[in-house]
Amino acid sequence: ASVIKVEHLTYIYGEGMPDATTALDDISFEIEKGEFLGVIGPTGCGKSTLITHFNGLNRPTRGKLYIDGEDIWADPKKIRQYRFKVGLVFQYPEYQLFEETVRKDIGFGPRNMGLSDEEVDQRVVEAARFCGLDEAVLERSPFELSGGQKRRAAIAGVIAMRPEVLVLDEPAAGLDPEGREMILSQVKRYHRETGTTVVLVSHSMEDIAKYADRVLVLQAGKVAMLDTTANIFARA
Ligand code: ADP
Ligand code: ADP
């Protein structure tokens, strides 16, 4: 069964303006429940525009987006619920870390969901553990963390919401090989242990080949290929 279904999705920045850009051009595909999907393609091909549609941050110019079979824009008043169903980890975690302590920061999402303090704290500790952050780190300021720890705290903040789909945009960008490996193998373990659907955006063929079950190749706003990792790399 599909968890996300994209149907004839077109997205145009500045529609009707002389400098309008068609970032996504009539694309259709489905993401299967529980899979680890890699999304790859050159800079400017539409990866960020695509993933910000998954939780309703962007609204299609044309076409539809379904989550668990529901057209998410059928009632725009209900769009907020999809922010919790599909957890997005942005490329630059600085945008997501803004509380005084790491504990508060990771708890931001679950607090927003209206969970009790006790449940929030339980989820924070669990998410931090998943991301390899020990309890002492939770009392520190997010600004004191290393680059790798910041990434892990940003991921923990999203998984603390227990989203149905975890979407990560270049979660290891700018880290050294050891840091990359640590982040990506933690994401993989999370996927294996919780069965959560994961979408990993990267322009590293190597990372995608190593971690993804299927690969979506975007090119100039179109789906160039969508196949199992083995088939995609057999062709490359
Ligand atoms: P990627 O994430 O693959 O680098 P993007 O989704 O960021 O691609 O960009 C897709 C296209 O949309 C590019 O041509 C880019 O220049 C354009 N674009 C992205 N964001 C904006 C924006 N805010 N305003 C206008 N054009 C944009
Ligand atoms: P519940 O979520 O109601 O506790 P589940 O059967 O969904 O029950 O999960 C069992 C345990 O697995 C949870 O208590 C939690 O520790 C862990 N777990 C499940 N899903 C997630 C998730 N998305 N993120 C982190 N931990 C999870």
UniProtKB/TrEMBL annotation:
User: GO molecular function: any one?
Assistant: ATPase-coupled transmembrane transporter activity
Q: Where in the cell is it found?
A: Cell membrane
Q: How does it sit in the membrane?
A: Peripheral membrane protein
Indicate the principal place this protein occupies in or around the cell. membrane
Which of UniProt's keywords are assigned here? ATP-binding, Cell membrane, Membrane, Nucleotide-binding, Translocase, Transport
Does the record's keyword annotation contain Transmembrane helix?
A: no
What EC number(s) does its UniProt record assign?
Answer: 7.-.-.-
Q: Which GO terms describe its cellular component?
A: ATP-binding cassette (ABC) transporter complex
EC class: translocase
Annotated ABC transporter domain residues: 4-236
How does it associate, per the subunit comment? Forms a stable energy-coupling factor (ECF) transporter complex composed of 2 membrane-embedded substrate-binding proteins (S component), 2 ATP-binding proteins (A component) and 2 transmembrane proteins (T component).
Q: What does this protein do?
A: ATP-binding (A) component of a common energy-coupling factor (ECF) ABC-transporter complex.
Q: Which family does it belong to?
A: Belongs to the ABC transporter superfamily. Energy-coupling factor EcfA family.
This protein is called Energy-coupling factor transporter ATP-binding protein EcfA2
Q: Which organism is it from?
A: Anaerofilum hominis
